[in-house]
Amino acid sequence: MRLKADLTLLLVSIIWGSAFVAQRVAGQMGSVYLFNGARYLLAAVVVLPFALRVGRASGPTGEVSNLTYPQEQYKWMFVAGFVLFLGSAFQQLGVVYTTAGNAGFITSLYVVLVPVVLFIAWREKSRWISVIAVMLAGVGAFFLSTGGRFEVRAGDALELVGALFWTLHVIVLGKYASKFESISFSVGQLIICGLLNLGIGIFVEKSMPINLPLFSAIAYTAFFSLGLCYTLQIWAQRHAPPADAALILSLESVFAVLSGWLLLNEKLAGIQIFGCALIFVAVLLSQFKEWNLRGKIDSTHLVEGR
Known about the structure:
This protein is mainly alpha-helical. It is 77% helix and 2% strand. Strands 1-2 form a two-stranded antiparallel ribbon. The two termini are 27 Å apart.
């Protein structure tokens, strides 16, 4: 069962990494908000049947009744959906101007930034290994984005802002969403995120290109990256050890670079590859305390940044 769960997480990581290619394809067509709106709403439709199934509970005598959700859940679904909207908007806007590989690695910085934001905003103690991870990630992001020159690309800067919102999203899920039923909460935040993106897109972009590559990008990210992978991850993390899950899911950024190279002919200079390596090590270090101190990984890594 462990091997099956690990292989499932590897598949999830590959799909999430390759999804940056689909986002890059849409970005090259100038589609940001309408693309996001379409894929998040479609993903909500994909996950909705699972939420409805969970929402129908059987009583002690076998009767079936619909579960009712507390009002507090709707409030936090809106908050999570709004933060998800900001993260997805900055990420998709950034991928218009940068590569799929850069977007994948810079987005992965949210893993490193979570303890920093928790310390600043909630005064939660941060361990020394988190400080080292932040320093490594900062140097790695500099090398990746600038190639060693003191010049930050606009697309990478947008991805970094997006990473900050992914950080907030993870914290919101961990501190508040964990109190509620997870699948219905996911559907709610996906709908909020999709509607906000769609609303902005109607005013800003007015229309979306009608072609097969864009529709394919929407379908791939909605059905596979968001819908399928969300469901697979929930199952796999119940059967895979925390250390396995942390390591395998962190490979997402590596698969983003490989997918960009194979499918879009994107290339990285040696110094940029070194930057990717530093970021990857920083992500692993940021999870090291989870493996050794608490023996568990935060299960809130559910639909971040896809």
